[in-house]
Specification:
The chain has helices spanning 12-24, 54-63, 89-104, 136-151, 173-183, 200-212, 229-239, 270-276, 283-296, 298-302, and strands spanning 4-7, 30-34, 46-48, 68-71, 108-114, 156-160, 162-163, 198-199, 217-220. It is globular and about 55 Å long. The chain is α/β, with parallel strands linked by helices and 314 residues long. The chain has 10 helices and 9 strands. The strands form 2 sheets. A 7-stranded parallel sheet has the order 3-2-1-4-5-6-9, sandwiched between helices.
């Protein structure tokens, strides 16, 4: 029987993973810790914790009798979220601390990391690809990955770019994009940067299979399609039958994009597909499931105050 301790349930990945595990992970115990805002997740008891020390982390591992610790820290946020670039030295220490606590408790560790470590120029980066970003935030994420593997050499390290409903309600990236589409009908997003986004619950299902195979080391788990934020929002609008207008400020690049996740961050997923014999979802599948989660009530399991479903336009 597996017991899960999910650190970072205030993030989209952490919250969706917790609710998915509550439904699909059997009779094991489940505990979610939020280092930010307090959240309420159906089927997963949560605690708001701040200023956690190494001793505290080890105590939470013991109290939860965790066999699996899943770290959904700052790097787990989609690189398209405005706050994703706020990754500093404290986040490196946070990662190292929880990795050490998991190892001390004899628990398996999974660290959710970011596609923002890359910047192109080629497409679909493999796990050992070059083209690493020299942006300070990206370099800190790479340092956190290294700290995790040094503190817990048997860890599973996953780079991704996940989207989904937020436990923070209208503050979520998807929620804000939909609000803009409904009120202003604008798809005013970056068309230069590209990634391979995956629905957070699709990521959760693949993680369950990876844990079943006891995978260790670095893997990319992402969607099958490369897309820009602009194209993503346009296709989101189409799923809801919402009209949209696009604002495009320039027709071509004059120089290579620079900055955090500003360029080419698409991920090659051949390694995980071969390891667990699974296909990565295409974007239309993920968006269709996102809409179904809205209309069928899954969204309210993450945020009880969320509306009961955004009505599609006629």
């Amino acid at each position: 029987m597996a017991n899960y301790l999910i650190v970072g349930v205030e993030t989209v990945v952490g919250a969706n993973l917790a609710v998915h595990l509550a439904e699909h992970a059997g009779d094991g115990r489940l505990l979610g810790l939020s280092a930010g805002a307090a959240v309420s997740l159906e089927g997963c008891p949560t605690r708001q914790v701040k200023g956690v020390t190494s001793a505290d982390a080890q105590q939470y591992c013991r109290e939860s009798e965790a066999t699996h610790v899943v770290l959904c820290g700052a790097a787990a946020r989609s690189s398209w979220e405005p706050d994703a670039a706020r990754f500093d030295d404290r986040d490196i220490e946070f990662t190292r601390m929880w990795a050490g606590a998991a190892r001390a408790a004899g628990a398996r560790l999974t660290v959710i990391s970011s596609d923002a470590v890359f910047t192109g120029p080629w497409l679909f980066h493999e796990e050992d690809a070059g083209g690493l970003s020299d942006d300070p935030q990206s370099q800190r994420i790479l340092a956190a990955e290294q700290q995790a593997l040094e503190a817990h050499p048997e860890a599973l390290l996953v780079r991704t770019n996940a989207f989904g409903w937020s436990p923070l309600g209208e503050a979520g990236w998807i929620e804000q994009r939909l609000a803009q589409l409904q009120t202003r009908r604008l798809a005013d997003q970056d068309f230069i940067r590209h990634a391979t986004p995956i629905l957070a619950t699709d990521l959760a299902g693949i993680l369950l299979r990876a844990w079943g195979e006891e995978l260790q080391g670095l893997y990319h788990i992402a969607g099958a399609e490369r897309v820009s934020p602009l194209k993503f929002v346009q296709r989101l609008a189409e799923q809801y039958h919402l009209p949209w207008l696009s604002i495009r400020r320039t027709e071509s690049l004059q120089e290579r994009a620079s900055g955090f996740a500003a360029g080419e961050c698409s991920l090659q997923t051949k390694k995980i597909r071969k390891a667990i014999c699974v296909a990565m979802p295409i974007l239309s599948e993920g968006l269709a499931r996102l809409v179904e989660q809205d209309t069928a009530g899954f969204r309210r399991r993450l945020c009880p105050t969320a509306p009961r479903g955004i009505e599609k336009a006629a």
